[in-house]
Task: structure prediction
Amino acid sequence: MNILGLYNYWIVVILMLIGFYIVIAHENLVKKLVGLAIFQTSVFFLYISMGKITGATAPILDEKWQLYSNPLPHVLILTAIVVGIATTALGLSLVVRIQEAYGSIEENDIQIQDTQDQLECQLEAYGIQESLTTFDQDIDE
Amino acid sequence: MEMLLDILSWILLASGSFFCLTGALGLLRFPDFFTRIHATGITDTMGAGLILIGLMLQASNWIVFAKLFIILLFSLLAAATACHAMAKAAIKSGLKPQTKDNREIEPEEQPSKP
Amino acid sequence: MGDLFAVVMLSGIYSLLSAALFLDLHAVDVAFTEASVGAGISTLLFLATLKLVPRYDKKSRYKPALALGVVVVTGALLIYGTLDMPHFGKADAPVHEHVAPRYLNESMDEIGIPNVVTSVLASYRGFDTLGEVVVIFTAGIGVMSLLRISRQAKKEAKSKTPADMQQQVILRVVAKMMIPLILIFALYVQFHGDYSPGGGFQAGVIFAAGIILYTMLFGLSTAQLVFKRKVLELFTAIGVFLYAGVGFVCLFMGGNFLDYDVLRHDPVHGQHLGILLVELGVGITVASVMMTIFFKFTWRTVKHKYNQ
Result:
């Protein structure tokens, strides 16, 4: 079985892996969103390349052509592109709000601030009014 | 007549591709930002322009010819304006052009209009 | 790569290249949409965000070995899974049977427009497109509620137009020449979507891009004099209303929901009218939502500049 005819799926898989790696390994939120966009584009390539027929033309009816590429994946991917931009716009506005609330968009900083806030809430629940920084200063003296 | 049009299209398309290639080479190899803007401007105007003129000669009916002509006009206008905008933004951010003897070039003060 | 500006620009180039690839794969409508949406609006929104977040990112201290391992294992599984797929470009693949030949063969008789993608999008699969318009509308509402404008920012920003924009003479002149033509092109793409690649989505995005160009060069307050905030928000709803309204009118006239055959005396004319109205609704919603999102992002930068 000649597997060289499957090269379009391998390209899709490589792009998908690149996008996947960016989303899980990088810490910056904007970079994660760019990785998500790359992932989405790879899925578009999967569908569109499945719909292509060699020797055919674009699905706009004309007298000179008999064979047309499949229009159904085109319709699905048109919807998917617009949904992708909607998701990106919402993600970016969330990034803007996170930057205003936490002061940074690195995942590590956000997690550290969240853990600090959580510990402060628990200390308050137990009745200890001091913040974590004064706790360190008491040990030094 | 057909032969003449075909030969002319071939020449124009080949020279347009040559300009695109040199523009890309210039983008990678030129030393300074402003020279690189010049290289990309060559790609957009000469490269795309000659390719479009070569395609215009091959147009089958006058509607395709007119559409290609309008695309050519817009492409030239937008490319030149984009180069200007990039250079102006660079000057405003304080980027100084690199000169041969490392002379200092001061940007001229813009006359402020109300 | 520590510079987010370079990352965003490279992602814009990637979108443009994938649009060119779509063109090679005979997907002209998809290429049009990807070029206008991915390389246009998406890059614009990323750049607008870059004004509000730090431009450089911190270097991470740990080595992502686990992430690499997971990615490699997933890749191996996926490639193993594609070994059974049909070869690229074969005409007898299973995806080309059942529904697609019916669309290609019957579209001219039932609907009568040459662009099969538009006829499938607006008529055969009209429900999906209605859902999609609602998704765009929801995204607009989401951004509107996340990035609210404070009254203080509105009062402060009304008097201050950016003074350096007065000096951009060349850009303003060229923009004044090009913006009316961009808007006319958007209308052309909207209504010519039956005969060539186009339709509501691309037209809405191109219209929004023209107005965004105007906003960037002439100031936010000048643009808001023309496109008032409440009117824009109303128009985002009008598009969805138009689409669903066409569906309900079809119900009242005796057919199914979104069955355009009953709209006129002749089924083919009914389909033409239905597709026209529906694509108009899509274009109105997409243009309004894209403009609203950009205006919200720009208002946020005004708040930053004058509230710090």
The two ends of chain B are 59 Å apart (CA to CA).
